[in-house]
Specification:
The chain has two helices and six strands. The protein is an alpha+beta fold. It has two domains: 70 residues, Nucleic acid-binding proteins (OB fold (Dihydrolipoamide Acetyltransferase, E2P)); 63 residues.
């Protein structure tokens, strides 16, 4: 687990927005949408079980393995679908569409599978955002 410290900027229900300082690793981060970049740092949405209030400094626990799972879902799954669709399209093109280039059928099938997988990933992400296990958690109030 990775620990961060930051300042609570907004509290709503069981959630809070926490401003943490930007790190050099933020620049190349592939997990866009997990936090929002501001001039002062990064604003992260976190669960607030300790009931921190606006202006308080807090310690946040972030599960890096959850972000890794999300990255694999967002990037890996569409890639697998694209490749599988292309291979399947090539096979179907050679077998059933003799008058049309099998490469064209492979490209159409690959991109169709990619688009379908992106739609599926979108649905899975929307479901995962509702689960608390994927969100950072405010562990304690520091001051």
């Amino acid at each position: 687990m990775e620990e961060e410290t930051g300042t609570v900027t907004k509290v709503y229900g069981l959630m809070a927005k926490v401003l943490v300082h930007k790190k050099s690793s933020c620049e190349g981060c592939g997990v866009q949408g997990a936090c929002q970049s501001t001039a002062e740092g990064m604003e992260i949405e976190a669960l607030n079980p300790v009931q921190a209030r606006e202006g308080q400094k807090v310690k946040i626990l972030v599960k890096p393995d959850e972000y890794l799972k999300g990255s694999m879902l967002v990037y890996g799954l569409p890639l697998v679908f694209f490749i599988a669709g292309s291979i399947l399209g090539k096979i179907i093109g050679e077998e059933y569409f003799k008058g049309i280039s099998s490469d064209l059928i492979a490209a159409i099938a690959g991109f169709s599978a990619l688009i379908l997988s992106l739609a599926g990933v979108r649905v899975l992400i929307m479901k995962a955002e509702k689960k608390s296990g994927y969100k950072p958690v405010i562990e304690e109030i520091l001051g």
